[in-house]
Design goal:
The complex is a heterodimer of chains A (116) and B (352). Chain A has 116 residues and is α+β, with helices and mostly antiparallel strands. Chain A has 3 helices and 4 strands; from the N terminus they run E-H-E-E-H-E-H. In chain A, strand 2 and strand 3 form a beta hairpin. Chain B is built from 15 helices and 9 strands. Chain B has a 5-stranded mixed sheet. Chain B has a 4-stranded parallel sheet with strand order 3-2-1-4, sandwiched between helices. Classes of the chains: A alpha+beta (116), B alpha/beta (352). Chains A and B meet through loops of A and helix 12 of B.
Chain lengths: 116, 352
């Protein structure tokens, strides 16, 4: 069973550089003040890798791709993005699953919406 | 529920009594802490015993801090408490009263919200039970007299009593104890009633809801009774707008204050609330207001901060747009029904 992922923004860390909205225009838009608004509740299955790459590129490390809990029992709003232990756990299991390092790996993986 | 979670944690928690009361319109926590500091400390110590906490911290507004310090010193001299009680003066400012900000202040000395639920562990990594001082005072009374006694007041769903701050166009503004379910008109009656027929009421505080007087006065003052109006008892503030005052100008003043009070951490809150305040100020000044854009901004800031500051402000403004609809139209045509200048609600920290 594959678990879906969603984008989470840490509003304290984010200072509106706008990189995420430029790289993921289908998932993130900017509000009138240049801060990201998440458009889709879940990341489409085919875009997950792309979303993870963009999350690593965020200059403020404010964007995160997070697994949606299997139970459908969502944690209360605002809990997940600052829960470091959980975040690390996710990242580790994620890396283990794909059997690779923290950096994106093959250059093909960088393919963004306007990429090669 | 909070008690059980804190007690179940692997590490000994710390109990924090939140009496920071950042909201300038509210006075209930200051009054409670000044008049009955021992009751609050009793509650905090009981909560600490129940959860196995090693420390109880009372965060008190500067106006009430002296009384609490004195009470804590008396108890320390008597040696009656099983856990140490620390009294801390709260940081000033509206957002400093938010629960995670109070935890942050206690553990690290920084009074800004963190967006992290405190029960999981504050910035000092200790799990924290933060409760309002009024809740802890109730806990102390329940332990003394039993739950049945507590349930003799209020409604089955909302038992007990609550402290309400009445201000604005009432004869005797102040803090009153009411049972949930009392009609709003009777709550206002405790303060001697209104000298003239009021126009609108702000119920629940600065994150509360504006409601037309005719709609809200006959309703019971409780979560269930106010929900049809989209209102809640909230911080227990009921502000009565006199008929001569302009609700739009009052709202604009309030939002400007809230925008200034942002902790300044999250972009949508800092820039969004400022933009909303500017739009309302323009509307109040009669130079027009882009209502669809304003409504979109209210949606845009909701849920976009680490704390609920933008959400609460947006709710209050949305209710103002409903209740003062005719007033906004009149302003757009260059008029204003008000004969008195605005300035009803306090927008700076005050001492009771």
């Amino acid at each position: 069973v594959t678990r879906r992922a969603r984008l989470v923004i840490d509003p304290i860390a984010c200072d509106g550089r706008g990189l995420c909205a430029e790289l993921l225009p289908d998932l993130i838009a900017l509000d009138d003040w240049g801060f990201p608004v998440i458009l889709a509740a879940l990341v489409p299955a085919g875009m997950e890798r792309e979303a993870r790459t963009v999350a690593r590129l965020c200059p403020r490390l404010a964007l995160q791709v997070e697994r949606v809990p299997r139970t459908g029992n969502h944690p209360p709003r605002g809990t997940s993005f600052l829960n470091e232990t959980k975040r690390l756990g996710v990242a580790v299991s994620e890396r283990r699953r794909h059997g690779r390092r923290f950096y994106p790996g093959k250059p093909d993986d960088h393919r963004g919406p306007g990429g090669r | 529920v909070k008690l059980r979670t804190a007690a179940a944690g692997p590490r000994a928690p710390v109990v924090i009594a939140n009496g920071a009361e950042g909201e300038p319109a509210s006075a209930k926590d200051k009054v409670l802490l000044s008049r009955a500091p021992h009751l609050v400390i009793d509650g905090a110590v009981s909560a600490a015993e129940l959860t196995g906490a090693r420390e109880a911290v009372i965060v008190a507004h500067s106006a009430a801090c002296e009384a609490v310090r004195r009470a804590a010193a008396e108890r320390a001299a008597a040696g009656c408490d099983p856990v140490p009680v620390r009294v801390l003066e709260a940081a000033g400012g509206f957002t400093a009263g938010e629960a995670s900000a109070v935890v942050h202040w206690t553990e690290r000395g920084t009074p800004v919200p963190t967006g992290r639920p405190p029960r999981l562990g504050g910035p000092g990594r200790r799990p924290v039970l933060v409760s309002n001082v009024e809740t802890l005072a109730h806990l102390a009374l329940i332990i003394r007299h039993g739950a049945c006694w507590f349930r003799t007041a209020g409604t089955p769903v909302e038992p007990g009593t609550m402290l309400v701050t009445l201000l604005g166009a009432v004869r005797h503004p102040g803090v009153y104890e009411v049972e949930p379910g009392t009609r709003v008109i009777d709550v206002v009656g405790l303060a001697g009633g209104t000298p003239e027929r009021p126009g609108a009421l702000l119920v629940g505080g600065y994150f509360g809801t504006w409601a037309a007087a005719d709609d809200v006065l006959p309703r019971p003052f409780s979560a269930a009774g106010l929900s049809p109006l989209g209102a809640r008892p909230g911080a227990g503030v009921v502000a009565v707008l006199p008929p001569a005052a302009c609700g739009l100008a009052e709202t604009a003043r309030l939002v400007r204050y809230l925008a200034r009070s942002s902790a300044g951490q999250c972009g949508p809150c800092v820039l969004g609330l400022d933009a909303i305040a500017r739009e309302l100020e323009q509307a109040a000044a009669g130079s027009g207001c882009d209502l669809p854009r304003l409504r979109r901004w209210l949606r845009d800031v909701t849920g976009r901060g680490a704390c609920r500051h933008p959400d609460g402000t947006a709710l209050m403004v949305a209710s103002a747009l409903r209740v003062f609809r005719t007033e906004i139209g009149r302003h757009a045509r260059g008029g204003c029904g008000a004969t008195a200048s605005a300035g009803l609600l306090p927008v700076a920290d005050r001492t009771p």
